[in-house]
UniProtKB/TrEMBL annotation:
This is non-specific serine/threonine protein kinase. The gene is Tssk1b. Residues 12-272 form the Protein kinase domain. GO terms for molecular function: ATP binding; magnesium ion binding; protein-containing complex binding; tau-protein kinase activity. SUPFAM superfamilies: Protein kinase-like (PK-like) (SSF56112). PROSITE patterns: PROTEIN_KINASE_ATP, PROTEIN_KINASE_DOM, PROTEIN_KINASE_ST. Pfam families: Pkinase (PF00069). Residues 284-362 are annotated as: Disordered. Residues 303-326 have a biased composition (Basic and acidic residues). GO terms for biological process: intracellular signal transduction; microtubule cytoskeleton organization; spermatid development. It catalyses: L-threonyl-[protein] + ATP = O-phospho-L-threonyl-[protein] + ADP + H(+); L-seryl-[protein] + ATP = O-phospho-L-seryl-[protein] + ADP + H(+).
Amino acid sequence: MDDAAVLKRRGYIMGINLGEGSYAKVKSAYSERLKFNVAVKIIDRKKAPTDFLEKFLPREIEILAMLNHRSIVKTYEIFETSDGKVYIVMELGVQGDLLEFIKTRGALQEDDARKKFHQLSSAIKYCHDLDVVHRDLKCENLLLDKDFNIKLSDFGFSKRCLRDDSGRLTLSKTFCGSAAYAAPEVLQGIPYQPKVYDIWSLGVILYIMVCGSMPYDDSNIKKMLRIQKEHRVNFPRSKHLTGECKDLIYRMLQPDVNRRLHIDEILSHCWVQPKARGLSSAAINKEGESSRGTEPSWTPEPGPEKKSATKVEPREEARPETKPEEDAAQVAKQPEPLGLSSEQLPREKEEVPPQQPPETHT
């Protein structure tokens, strides 16, 4: 039977195509039982690579079945047919994804970004508390419901973290995700702490929310990595971001994994907590990193060496994957992006930086 006939027998009336890859596709459908539209991810086992079938698909199915959070896409049903097709019926992001939203409307105001980022961070805390990591956080994987609330989706790279005999989380060696959102340790092919990797991606996402552009140019990975390891983050002057917002982004885009914020520290940061906003810089430092060192929050880059970071957007890829800079392990193959295609975000016009640019961290 074709997909429409299979879905009809299960009580779904198939609708339009939402996205398609080499061995997976997403269709919209109307559920006669639920009385509303859903998304159906259809995976063809006959076309999928072995590592996906043996490792990633079982993980995704196991994790989707256990998650239940208001800011994570709901999974209503998972079933398989005798001809080797897997059907995953999920909540539909009726307002599209966050990348499309920002492309259309531009950067978010901080109050709107705060609401959406808090929803996303709450979803990540829920996952991390279950020792589940996403490992592919990006704007295309953040869907919006009818009220424009965030719904985290696409757990194709997710996994349950393992612990050693002492209870510490073991490092991951599978290098996956999108280069533009990948942490420096992943780009370098270093075994990494997967929860800490998720935090870097959160930093990139918040930057995109409030700036409408990418924090780093991933067209030159070596150059991007050098800038990241120097802990340089440029903010467009035209956005007039608050110090608290820039402080939070800067602390998430921390190349030192031992100093990068944890999810609980993000949720307790003064920018995320409206009642705590307006704290002094000393209070911000105490809340954010006093336990991790004494690195100053705001150290402008020296004027003569000041260079504006190129703002670039996620590029269309088969299934965006990080490829470590030189000799890291082979990247795991995954389905192509399903849903709205990734197109360029609005670019910030180059501006002449001031002598003492407050929007640059080093």
